[in-house]
């Protein structure tokens, strides 16, 4: 479940409620694949002007567990990140 989202010019921040028994690598791969298809389809004319690589997202990602941190503090941190720019 997506709890919070924000991003910067070259990356995004997601706060996800995710069961620890699930494979985070599979989740990340699926999310990148699906979002790439949606973005390429919805913004095709704009993207084609600037982007010609076969891969939309980098293969890298960073994942951290929130431990016992209050969810509201995590949401606040994500909301305070810079919004993506054009």
> How many beta-strand segments?
2
Total of DSSP H or I helical runs spanning 4+ residues: 3
Helix content: 40-55%
Terminal CA distance reads: 27 Å
Order of helices and strands: EEHHH
Largest sheet, order of strands side by side? 1-2
Largest sheet: 2 strands, antiparallel
The chain-level mean pLDDT equals 87
Principal-axis shape: globular
User: What structural category do the secondary elements indicate?
Assistant: alpha+beta
In short:
By secondary structure, the chain is α+β, with helices and mostly antiparallel strands. It has helices spanning 24-42, 44-50, 71-79, and strands spanning 2-8, 11-16.
How is this fold's topology laid out?
Blueprint: E1 2-8, E2 11-16, H1 24-42, H2 44-50, H3 71-79
Top keywords for this entry?
86 residues, alpha+beta, two-stranded antiparallel ribbon, 2 strands, globular
